[in-house]
Every structure is written in C-alpha cells, then in structure tokens.
Amino acid sequence: MKNLFLHYHSRNEFPTVSSIECFCVSAHSEEVYVCSNNIIYKLSVTSGLLKTLFSLHEYYDTVIPAVIHISFNSITESLYLAFKNGDVLTFESSSKEIQCVGCVESGLKTVQWSPDQEVIVMVTGKDTVILMTGNFDPVTEVDLHQSGFGEKQFITVGWGKKETQFHGSEGKAAAYAIPKSLEHLPVLDDGQPQISWKGDGSLFAVSTVRPEANSRKILIFSRDAVLQYTSEPTAGLEEAMSWQPSGSLIAVSQRFPNKHVIAFFEKNGLRHGEFSLPFAQNECKIHNLSWNSESSILAVWCEYITGKTCLQLWTVNNYHWYLKQCVNFSAEKKLLGIEWDMLHRNRLHIMCEGLCYMCYDWKWITNCSQGSTKADGAFVAVIDGAKILLTSFRHAVIPPPLCGQTLQVSVPVNCIMFAPCKKVNNSCITDRADDNKINSNTLCTILTDGSVVVFSESSSTKCHVQLAACNLNGENAAELHHWLWMTEDTFLCCRTHGSVSYLVEISVDLNAGKMNVRKEIHTNGIVVSIVLIPDGSGAVVQLADGILFLYKFDQDKLVQYSKVPEACETLQVTLIDGKDVLLGLSNRNRLYVDGQEVANNVTSLVVHSEFILLTTLRHMLLCVQLNLKGLQSLIKGQCSPGRHIERGARLVTSVAGDTSVILQMPRGNLECIQPRPLTLHVATVYLDSGQYGAAFKLLRKQRINLNLLCDHQPTEFLANIDFVVDELKDPTWLSLLLSELQEGSVTLTMYKEYYTHLEQLPRILNNKVQVVCDAMRDAMLRRQDADRYLLPVLTSYVQKQSDKDLADALIKVKTVKEAERRNGQLEISADEALKYLLYLVDVNRLYDVALGLYDFDLVMLVAAKSNKDPKEYLPFLNKLRRMEPNYSFFLIDKHLKRFESALYHISLCPEEEYFQECLDLVKTHKLFSKALDVFPKGSSRYLDIATVYADYLLDNKLYQEAGIMYARAQKYHKALTAYQIAGDWRETLLAANQLQYKENKLHELCQQLVSRLKGKCQFGEAAEVLSHHLGDFEESIAVLVQGRLWNEAVWSSFHYRRADMIETHVKPGILEHLEQLSGQLTSSKKQFTAYKTRLNAVRTAKEQLQIEEKDGELQEEYDLYSDTSSIMSSTLTASYTGSHTSGHSRRSSKNRRKHERKMLSLKEGSPYEELALVRALHQVITTTYNATEEVQSLCLVLLRFDFDKEAANLQKLLSDLIQEMDNAKHEIWTTDLMEQPLVGFGPDATVNSLTTRFQNQGLTNSNLALLEPNFRFPPQNKNISWKVSILSAV
Hints:
34% of the residues lie in helices and 27% in strands. By secondary structure, the chain is an alpha+beta fold. Helix 7 runs parallel beside helix 9 (790-799), helix 15 (885-895) packs antiparallel against helix 16 and helix 27 (1060-1111) runs parallel beside helix 33. The longest helix has 52 residues, at 1060-1111. The model is unreliable at 178-182, 424-435, 1113-1147, 1237-1244 and 1257-1261 (pLDDT under 50). Pfam families: A-sol_ELP1, Beta-prop_ELP1_1st, Beta-prop_ELP1_2nd, HB_ELP1, TPR_ELP1. Belongs to the ELP1/IKA1 family. GO terms for molecular function: tRNA binding. Residues 1060-1228 form the ELP1 three-helical bundle domain.
C-alpha cells in the first residue's frame, strides 16, 4: 500500500563536458568518477564540484582504446579502468600514478568486480572467463561455451520424463514430438555478454549468446569460476540482466512476439515468474536492469527507438509487480548510466548526456486522505503504472493487489496528493458552503508527461470520477517534485538546480484546466519534505540538514520554524490542545517531538483523529492520546501498555472517528485491528452523547466489559435508565448487560490506564449490582410492553444472587403462569421463562428456593422442568402435603438447613410430641439464644430450653454463664454448684440464700469456698469470706500474710484489734519475703553474668574463626575451640541444618515449633547456642523488670516497720542489677540481630550475597527464624518510677 516518493533530489550540469563513456560511484566518499572524451573527472556529490583527475593521453601516445568499465576500489583507494583492447589501468588516489596491471590479447567484452571487491571477472574476446584476485593475480580461465550443464547437474529417476507428463489438449502425441528450434537473437540485442554477481559473492552469472543457436543462455559459475548451472533453453532473452543482492532471483529481459517481459530465473537456471512491461512490440530496448541494495526496487533502463530514454522503478508486493515511478529523458539529455548507492538503500545515481548528474533518493510513503471526520473515506491510493488503485478502508478492507476501484490515466503516474483538510481544535473543515466538489476524498495525480489530473468522489455513485485535467503553462510539471495540495486553488512544489531547491507556488483553475506559477522562493538548501500546518494557512518546509522553515501565503520568504537533529522521512504537524506540534520520524527509527528525540525504536507513525499511533521494533502498537497529557507521557516514555503485532508490520492508515487501524505485513497482506484505546475512546464518546445503543454494540462486538456502560457515568446512567432501555430495546441485549454486572468500577481496575487523562475519575456506585438491577427492572416494568421484557426482569432478580430475589423470580414466573390460564398465550410463556431461569441458576438451588416458599405447585413446576427423577421428589412432597402445616414447614426448613426458621415453625406446633424434636434441633445447631426468644418467659418450654442451655455452658466450662442459666431455669442447686466451681462466692451465697440454707450448712459452704479460693490464690477474697461470713479474724489475717498482701494484713490487724498478729504473723512474713526476694535477685544477677560472659565468648570465637577461614589458615585441630564448638557447628553445617529441618515438613505447625524450641539448647557446643543465650538473657531481664512492682511494695512495708536499712539494700540490689542489664543491652542485641530481614532467600538472592551475609553475620535467615521475633529485640522496662525516694538517702 506504499508508493515511492522523491525524498531528496540534486542535479548538477556541466555543459563543457560533451559526452560520457562510463561512470562509477564511490559509496563511502560520496564521489562520482566519470570518463568523458578520454579524461577522468571526479564529481563531489555533496558540493557539486567537478575536478579533473587525469587524461588518458598521459598513458597512451597514439590511439586511445574505448573504455568499457570503470570502478573505484574503496579497499585500495584506487580507480580501475578496463579497455576494449584488453588493457587494465589503475590510478592511485594518493600517488596520482597510472599503472597497467594487465592486458588481455584477445580484448575484453565486459568486466565486473565481486561485491566485496576481492575478485574480478572478465569476459575476453575469445569468449573465455578469466578470474583474478583484487591484485590482478590470475586464478583461472575457463571456456564460456562449455557443453555440459555444470557441476550441479540435475539427477532424474524417470519421474520427470516428457513421455510421462500430462500434455492437456495437445494429446499423447506431444510426448514424442520433436521440439522446435528456439527463436534467434532479438533484433535489438547487441550480442554482448553481461556479468552479474550474487549479493554474497558466492556465485556470478554470465549472459552470453550461444554460437550454435544464436540465442542467449545464462551460465552460473561459482566464485572459483567453476560452472554450476546452465539455464533452460529460453527464447527471446536479451542482454540486460541483474542478480538480486539479497535474494536468489536473476532478472532478465525477455522479448516475446506479443509482449515484452522481465523474467526471473533461479540460481539453478530454472525460470521463476515474470511481469510484463508496458511497451509495444519492438518499441524500445531494455538497456540495463539494476536492483537497489535491499532488493526492493528494480530499475529498468529503457531506450526507445525514437532516441528518448526512460527509467522505470518496479516493486513487488503480494506477488504483484507495480510500476511506481517513470522518469523520462529527452533525446538531448539521453540517459547514459544508472547505479544504485551501496550505503543509502534507495539512492539512485543517474548520468545523462552533457555530464548531467542527478541524484534521486526515494522513500516509501502511504498516500491516504487526511480527513478527521466521518465524511472522510480513509482512502489509500496505490500507484501501478497508469492506474491508481484506490481503496476506502472506512467501508472495506481489500488486500492488495485488489482494490475498491481503479482509476485509469493515459500515462504512468509519478505522484499522488489528496486535497487538504483544515483542522481547528481537532475538528476537520474540508468543504465550503457553496462547493462540495473538493473535500478530503479528492485526489490529484501528477503524470510522467507533466499533466495533472484531479479525481473527485461522486455523490451519487460514491466512485471517483475525473474532475479536471490541466498542464502547467510553459513548463513540464514532471520536473517538479515534493507536490503538496495546500488550498483548493493552490499547489506547492519544488524544483532543484544544483544543490539548491526553489519553492514553487502554483495557482490552479480546475474549471479552466490551467496552472500558472505564482512565485518561486530560494530555500538555501535541498528540500526533502513539505507538510501542511493544521489551520491550512501555510506549510512547513524541511531541508536536508534538518532545518525547518515556515512558509505562509502572505509572505515571500521562509521563516525558520524549528530544527531536528536529522532529516525525517515522515514529518507531520498536528494540532494538540490548540498548539501545533511537530512529529518527525527518521530512517533510523528516531521519533522527534518538536525537535526533541523521544524514542529510538519507532518504525511507523500515523496520526489518528484522536491518537498518535506508533509501531516499534519490539513489534508493539502504541496508542498515545492526542492531548498534552498524552504527549507528555510520550516524551517521558511512559506510554500505556501497547498491543503485540506481527513482526515487521507497519501502519498504513487509520479510520478517522472510528476504531479501525490498518497494518501491512512484510509479505504485503493487510490486517485491520481495532486497538483497545481507540475502541474505548469511541465508546466513551457514544456514552457522553447518550448513544447507549451504539456504545453497547461496539462494546459487545469488541468484547469489552459491558460494566463500562454504567461505570463511565453512573449518575447519568441511572438518571437516564428509561432511555437506556429504549436504546437497547432487544430483551436479549438487556439480559446480557444485566448478566455481566459486577461490583466495583472497571474504570478503576480493568480499564484504569484509559482514564488516567481525566482530572476526576468517575465515582464508584455502591451496591452497583443491586441498584442497577432494581432500576432497570423498574424501568422495564413501567413500559407498556413490559411482557416482552420478562427474561431481562428475571435476569435482574437472578443477578442479585440472593435467595429472596430468586424467590421473587419464581413468584414472577408463577404470576405469568396464572395469567396464561386467565388470558391465554402470552408473548413469553411461563415455560420459556422457567427454562431461562434454569439456564441461569442451578436446578437444585432453584428447587430449594421453590421449596422454601412452601408452594408445592411451584415446586412441582420447577421439578417438572428439571432432570430430577420423580421417584425422588414426589414421595417427599406427598408426605409433606399430609402433615400439619407448621410441622411440614419445619421439615422443609430443616431440609434446606434454615434452622432458625425451622425453630420458629416447630415452636408453633402445640403438640408436646414435637417439643423433643425442638430440643434436639436446639442442641444440635446451638440455637439456645434464639429458642429463648421464641418461647414465653416462665413457660415450661422456656425453662427446659434454659436448662439445656445451662448444661451446654457447663460442659464447655463456662461456669459463670452456666450458673446464670441454671438460675433462670430455677435450678438453684445446679446454679450453686456452677458458681462454686467458677469461684464466685457472692453468687454462690446468693444461690444458697435462694435455697434457704441453714446456718450450719451455710458455714460448711463458706469453708469450702475459702478452701477453693485459696487454691486459686485468691487470698484477698478468701480473707473476706473468713472475716465477714465465718468471723475468723485470725485466720483471715493469716491468709492475707500468706498472699503477701501486706497493707491489707496490717489494716485488718488494727481493724479487728489484733495488734499482736503484727509481731506473730506480719513481721515474720515480711522478713521471709525479703529474704526470698533478695535471693531471687542475687540468683538472677549470677545467671545474667554467666549467660553474658558465655555469649561474648561464643561471638569472639566465631569472629576469630571467620578471620582464619578468609585467610585460608583454618587449622585441622578443632580442640582449640572445644569451649565454643557451637560456632563450628553452626558455621559449617548451616546448609545441612536447613536440609535436615526441611525433611520434617510433615510435622504439624505446633510440633514444628516445639521441635525448634528444643533446638535452642543452652548446652555448650550446641549448634544454636548463641540464639539460646539471647533468648535466656531476654527472659532473665524481663523477669527482673517485672519484679520492680513487688520490690516497691515490699520496701514501703519495710519502711512502715522501721526496716530502713533492709529496704535500702533491697532497692539498691535491684537498681544495680537493672543498671547492669541496661548497659549490656547493646552488647547482647547487636545491629545485625535486630536489622537482619526475616527472608533472605528468594528470586533476588544470589550465591555471593548469601555467602557474604553468612560470613559477615554468622546467622543465616533460616537460623534466625528459630528465634521468636520478640526475643530479637531487647526488653523494655515500663515501670521506671518504682524506686522509693526515702531510701535514696539511706
């Protein structure tokens, strides 16, 4: 779908040089060497300067032979000339010396260097092939007319014999017919041999005339000049021949009696296709064929019998050959030579009579209409000689070489341009109010004869017809290039003289068929592209050096517009939020935005009406929104995720205002895709304008989540719910929409990246499914034809996923069934509705819902439409029909596991025989609280339920609550027992009071309570029972002393006037407590010191071991580390430990933790002794911190009885111990122990990182995991104000 467009053109003429024999191009230095009148010139392509190198008279004194070949060797920096008499001369650029490197006595017919310039092949006058090295050392010489086929002679086993082939209408006699002799050499054939190398230099082909038959054949030789293949006998072959540089086909000119073709041969000599040339019989001669470096363009040099010459450029796609360009040359400027550039893939060097050198640099473009509205047909025009293949991709995707319509002209077309489109705020204005002939679908063609033909789309037939044809007065328009249609009556183009281009503005009168040059403007460079600015008031002109100029109609000069680092093959100015933005794409895949490079992997670029479309080297299609936010994301390289496309796919065009994007694959076929961003954009446009039907069709077609319909604008959707139903109309579509509803908003999840350009995202609709289903159901039921919306109504019930709504759906079906009985057949019958429900809901669930309605007719209706066996449900239903209603409802609820409802219905059964089932239901399903609410308080059933509930609580050891329930059930004996077990002496005595216990029994009960409270260490409560209810004050004080409740004991001694017990019980108890607590603190200090000392020793030995391992001085005798052998074990067996523990993966988590705790042993030499010591130290310090409150209480009591010294010593002992522990915390809990992450293994871990951590820290993550998280950090003392200030001075 692409055409060849002239990207760069330069022209240099030197009238002083009359004729040219031959020329060559030095690709690396961009210089052209020309042989003219026995003088060798050097022409600089960049500067256009001509320099004389030398004259052949310097070497030849007399007659100078004809030069047949000239070439420049970039390896040796030498110029080589081959002469017809057999001489080969070299001219070195550095020494300026001319040398003769060889001479062939029989003369030379043709010479050709290999592509790598290491081998040269010559055909001599005796028809021999001479092979030489690059230094002209002979390698071999072979006869050109060999009798054999070659080394690769085909092997046949008889299957391919002529006698065994099918000959069609000719019959079997054709199998034995003698073949006719081939036609003789064409009249216009000069009979000279031609040489062409394969691109990799492994083979070369020679086209030569067979002496015995006077016809041509093609011989394929290896690099060593060994014949490999010979072409099959072919009539009409001519001398023009060229081998594809990057392919396997050889192009050869062939003349038939009725046509002239370019035939293709494979390297094995077999024919492989052809295409016809647009010439009459013997009208012209094919002088030469030449492929460009990437084998995509075949140049055909034609010479007419009238003396005129032309150059045709042919390309192939989808096995169809297109004539893309045809350059005509007059007899005065006859074409003398062509040569493709080796470095620039599409650059062609041309030499004409009078040393007129021209350089053509072609590029591939897509000629497509530029409209931004739906009136634009998205037309793409393809040049094919004198035909324009036109396709509208808005209406159909037609793969090439087919097309929507073919426009025929008289001569080949060189250029196509579509009518301009003025854009204002991303909208397109193409038509005037009084004229609709010219719009974005109108196209103009520039023909090879200079005429201009305009085609416009017919409003009636929608086909393009010729609107006008005109010629440029006094000038040939074919010599102009870079055509641009600016306004309806203005064209803009260029002409080039030397290395300078002139901008030409042409006025056009289509009605009169006239064109005139208005003005020409000097550009100070060579123009490579001209593009229209969005408002249509001017154009941007790009020069070869990347400088951009702005041209406006009302100015006669160019104003510099911008600059890009390199000339861009694709250039476009687009309007983004009221600002003109320049987009450029170079042939090196660099994308520029306003001169700034933003990407280096872009292969094609198309500007859609709302998006910038890009393809990348990673075979992705990117869609960038056409606004400033999207442009910033493109500049920052933060585009949304793209879409994968086929390798090598390129953008052709996009349909404005639509979702279609056309891609062309490397082999030529087309693919129409609809990218998700474009689809979502069009869908949101539909939704914003209230076109819910169009939006639904688009979303459904593109398989986009239909939740977008309501999530895009939830408030407007609900407000226009009646209009939504009117738009969708079809009940099937409404059902589909309802069935896809889901909670949440797809604008925040699935399609979040497509809503990032909004400043405020759509709000989330709470309980969306319920709200939308209810709203749509109400809207459908309000319609006059509500009956036809029965299925969507049922869907709205089902989608809410609750049994209540399913029940409503079944009731709706039942209502329809009853209406059928009364009124006859409805639009949607109840049977159809029920079948639809069974499609949406599992039949078993629907059966249970129907059963839960206690409507046996409805149950039968559902069961009849299901696959259930009647033997399964009929006996059950018949049994229920015969039962008492409440009891049948109970059985149904129990069957459906609706136990609370079952409890309610069984409670309504007055018969006592059902109450036992009620109790069983309550006990089985633990419905005690519900049962208490169902039965009246004080009733016998209520008391029984309370008793059962209390038994349940007692079994679960909830004694306090069990006592309450027993009391509520008036079971006071059991309540007393429950309270007694719970230790609640007050409730126990209250229960005893309810039972009217006598004094002796009450005294015995109190004694039991005291014993139980003392067993639970509730000494204060036990003392209260003794003093208040038993009157035993002495024992009460003794119990307080036992519980070390010193303040209460002292107060009770004085309150009950037992001061003697201060001396007999309280003081001895205090001193005993002091001794015990002092001993405990002393023991903790010793334990802390021992653990800390051991920990330091373990860590010191570990560090020493690591140092020795690094230095490679680890001793074999480990006895030196016998005291700290745990370090050796943990270091050297870390991996073994991990694998060992992993072997016990079948243990339960509880047993695994128990096993891990056992591994942390304080035994010296254990693998994890360090972790065990840290845990032990943590426990010792925590115990010491917890003793502060107890010490404070004891010190106050000691001060009460004047034991100041003892109290001070106790406080100092604890204070010193806490201070010592606080000072040692930073030694125990090191930084690596506290900051080391819990997880060290994973995808980011490496062997080196784990080894380094293992060596530097000594504790791997797996070992550290054995230590509970709370032990990895030092404990904190929360009671910081525990000291008694009086003792600080003691």
